[in-house]
Amino acid sequence: MALQGSGPISISQIRTELIGSTTSYSLRTLSAAASKAAPDAMSEFYGFSAAVSVDYLVIAGGGGGGYGSTAIEYGGGGGAGGYKEGTINLNRNTSYTITVGAGATAGQNNGIITNGSPSSISSLVTPTGGGGGA
Length: 134
Fold this sequence. Notes:
This protein is an alpha+beta fold.
């Protein structure tokens, strides 16, 4: 939640907004954690928010192609991976885990169809990866 746009601001309020990035009560340290340059002033924090709004698109891995049993028989292609898109608020100075879903291997001559794996950004997970070809 952003700090107020006017009136007194305390070091404690700034620290709360920057939660997890510093335990310091130094205005210089807090300003640096907020990516602000010296000289430092409390008024620089009017309306400040540690969150950054980001548009995202997460795509799962595609499905594996099918398998043909002879030279003139070809398997079908694998399906595209599922996706999620939208906007998310991310906090400054916070690490987020990004997982890129793997594409599946080609189908085998034993009827096994393989799907791609999901992708994710922290808690945002795509639906299952693409379905394998037959």
